[in-house]
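Entry:
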Amino acid sequence: MHYYKRNIGDYAKKAGKLTMLQHGAYTLLIDACYDRERFPTLEDAMDWTWAETDEEKRAVEVVLRRFFKLVDGFYVQDRITEELESYKALSEVNSRIARDREAQKRANKSTKREPVVHEPAPNHKPLTTNQEPLTNNSVAKATGAKAPMSTDEIIFSYGVPLLTNAGTPDKQARSFLGGLRKSHGDDALVNALRECVKTKPLQPLEWLAKVLPPKGSTPKLNKQESLEARNREVVARMIEKDNHAPI
């Protein structure tokens, strides 16, 4: 895992009183845990932070005691564990979607092959008036390939792990996604989920609720957004006033 979201406010609140050396040790440990996707022993922690002097080693020990738990010889942190589990779950979903897409491409190619010389020309007329049209599922069944994911599978394969890994109960996650689907439709929800996977917010439920607010409601703005909105209103009033001023 070569990327993670760093919340400056949360970090300052929890680690603001560390010394400069301890800050360096903590940052190196966090980066190393995400990069290696595992937690260190005491020996690993010294190696990952390049601690050599007694002062540097003491700084690493202070950080381990204050921000990690010793479990079976490894120093573990809940926040990093949650992020790694969420990352792995989403990676599995993305891998499955990629495999399904490739399988569908192979299925489509197999139905478009050129006829062999001794084969008769294809008859484009239906054999009977009851002949059913060829569907993706029937192609997949005939070729042995996996059928592409349905909209239900995409929404709940993406959405439920995304929310439950962030602490939302499974039942609440499904109900929340169902409500968004009913209010905004399948396409809007699928696009929002894909953007959420790319953005990797710490609270995906709140992020989705802001991106897809209830119909007829106005999304709550943060301080910066509110300030920008007021500035736009002031500029609009000034322009309107100038337009109505006598020449």
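The two ends are 63 Å apart (CA to CA).
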